[in-house]
Amino acid sequence: MTPTERPSRIGTPLPPFYCPLDRDLLHPRAKEIEARAVDWLDTHGLYPDPVERAWGLATHSADFSCRIIPRGRTEPLLLFTQWNYWANAVDDWQDSGAGDIRTAAVADHGIRLLRTLENPTAALLPDSPMTRALTDLVRRTHTLLTPVELRRFAEGTRDWLLGATWQAAQAERGSMPTLNDFAAMGALANGTRFSLTWSDAAAEVRLPADVLHSPALQALTDAAGFVVSADNDLFSYDKDDHLEPREVNLVNVIAHQEGCTPAEAVPLAVALRDRVMALFLRLRDHLSSGADEPLTRHLEALGHYIAGCIAWQSRAPRYASPRNRHTLPRNGARLPVRYTDTPSDPRTAPPPLPALAHWWRQTPP
Questions:
Q1: Who has the most CB within 10 Å: 132, 224, 312, 338?
Q2: Quick one: pLDDT at residue 30?
Q3: What pTM was computed for the model?
Q4: CA atoms within 13 A on the CB side of 327
């Protein structure tokens, strides 16, 4: 099936992305890291057949990893890349829409995965290639990360799993959440802190706890996660538009709340995304003033996270030739991306969403 046989509900091309950040950065050893990661996947037999392998590689998880971490040590970046290939396989299972993928199954798998990360010898998951690959990842992660980094990674994994469970519950109930609920919980499934732990590990950035967990930096991190989640909801919309009930994403949530079509909801979603992006830039500038070198590099990593995700998603066949329209991913498939340095919504006041409004209180007028 070709994309023209079933047009996109949100239309093409995608709207311009407000992203006045350094763009198209890529780690200089990206090709080496990709080759080593794919060899690891094949050694562990992560994919049961060539078709699943093709779709697994279509995630371009190495490209994602090497774009959001364009500088830093190779070994942490390789391990992060392997985690991403593994996590995308889990994510595809959770999002498959299969009748047996119930909230209870997602929650049960999630807590077992989290406890395995914290205690590799707990023996909580059934033997399988996925479990054996996970065991290898966890063992090497415990060896490579410091105790503080390991705790950050566990907390980021918890965010991802809680968000996935919440989304599964919405789908199982056949309900669409309010925009405020989605703004508070939807981005958790994006795994922002899961990823940013590795940005700091690769760069050997170790912030003091009172800086890392300060309200302002936590607000900035959550704002970055919201922007990346909103962008993903645009890039991945066609990939999931066959699901019934409809996928819980920013576009569908707004369409449901406003009583409009998904295409009509896109400008509203982009406007909200752009207001958060503008806040991110202001708050990052505020925190950069007088920041020491570790904090400066951490703030730079947050920018790489946003810009790198846009560049990666535009190049990933997972989104550019989605599985619900193609038997196999098309090599070289891309979604054209346009950028703008001007937000579609110029308002600087917080949106009328209590779940987001407290971010604005972290930035001086």
A1: 224
A2: 98
A3: 0.95
A4: 2
How high is the pLDDT of residue 71? 96
Per-residue pLDDT of 201-236, as tens digits, reads: 999 999 999 999 999 999 999 999 999 999 999 999
Structure tokens at 139: 């063992």
Which amino acid makes up residue 267?
A: P
Instruction: Look at residue 90 in the predicted model and tell me its pLDDT.
Output: 86
pLDDT for position 100: 52
Q: Higher confidence at residue 198 or residue 190?
A: 198
The pLDDT confidence band at residue 98, using thresholds 50, 70 and 90, is very low
